[in-house]
Amino acid sequence: MSKGIVLLAAGGTGGHVFPAEALAFKLKERGYSVHLVTDSRAERYAGKFPAEEIHVVPSATIGSKNPVAVARSLWTLWSGMRAAKRLIQRLKPVIVVGFGGYPTVPPLLAATRLGVASMLHEQNAVMGRANKALASRVKAIAGGFLPESGDAFSDKTVATGNPVRPAILATAEQPYLPSHPGEPFNLVVFGGSQGAQYFSKAMPTAISLLDDGLRARLRVTQQVRSEDMEMVSGCVAKLEMGADIAPFFNDMAERLARAHLVICRSGASTVSEISVIGRPAILVPYPHALDHDQAANAAALAATGGAKVIPQSELSPERIASILSHVMNDPDKLSHMAAAAKLAGKPDAANLLADMVEAIAAGKTVSEFKRTRA
Question: Its membrane topology, per UniProt (predicted)?
């Protein structure tokens, strides 16, 4: 018999959906039923998300200064909140948990108005706009990289870390096996839904600058936007190198576990997954992030020695080639970085977040929950 329904709300990108998915598995293990509210972008993840049902509620972001566009967005949000209110009244969840992104706004607003227990999980070191708008209304905030002190909402914040998907936890036990000179070198490159374009242009050029011996060792996995596939595939063919190029990889956890080096953006889920598995990384924060959250996320892992952070403006193809030339012949350096990344990982974040969800659903305050952890 179910302990009750937990309604999770998340924007339709991997950065929002993956932590929600990790929590959903834990809650199912503990006897809860899980429903997800999101938008149509999350369809690619729907097959793996352990929800009894996935609901799409109207929502919109207010990013335009055009009065007509603003009015249209406000009407969509109002419609979404009414739809979310009907959904919550029908499901009667014990708690509603938001994971950021504008699709979380209607269900969390509806929950707080109906007096249903509510909380947020913020993946990044800088709170996103949707979560910031909701933070004063909810009972608690779980933070991936947020501090528990010195912040406007620190009195209701618990630093849980970012839950990672079961596939990541399953591969986290695989030790880092260095690649020595003359051996195959697995390089994983990805940029997320917004940030892959830069790598599509920079990486083939960088690889073309390597000497033939190093290029022959490379085994590349690279996430590429659909519109860049033809260009990158053509470059790979000309370079006559081993590479898997695709817009999305269902087995990315296994590819990360086999990686000798990762070059990627520094979204919160990415940084958390790399650290839990324990792989050395070159982090390139997405330069157009509104709140510069990726730079703050990257700094957290770099501080442990598990990653090197390089702004995109300073990372030319020539510099990438120089970095690869050095690290491919320095397995000890990469092994030390892998160990440092592993120390920064929080593999138990999903359990801690599930504990917090249960506590808030049961009516406990953040202070009471923190005392139980002490």
Answer: Peripheral membrane protein
- Residues annotated within the binding site for UDP-N-acetyl-alpha-D-glucosamine are 13-15, 124, 165, 193, 294
Please tell me the total count of domains within the chain. 2
Alpha carbons 264 and 262: distance in angstroms, whole number: 6
Distance in angstroms (rounded) separating the CA atoms of residues 209 and 156 = 51
| Prediction pTM value | 0.83
Q: Are residues 60 and 104 both part of a single domain? A: yes
Query: Are 264 and 134 in the same domain?
Result: no
> Could you tell me if 234 and 257 lie in one domain?
yes
Same-domain status, 146 and 213: no
Do both 172 and 321 map to the same domain?
A: yes
307-326 average pLDDT score: 96
pLDDT in tens, 149-202: 767 788 899 999 999 888 899 999 999 999 999 999 999 999 866 667 889 889
Mean pLDDT computed over every residue of the chain = 89
Q: Is residue 240 domain-shared with residue 271, that is, in the same domain?
A: yes
* Band of residue 42 on the pLDDT scale cut at 50, 70, 90: low
Q: How far is 233 from 239, CA to CA, in rounded Å?
A: 10
The annotation places the binding site at: 13-15, 124, 165, 193, 294
Q: What mean pLDDT do residues 204-226 have?
A: 92
Range of the domain at 295: 168-344
CATH of the domain at 255: 3.40.50.2000
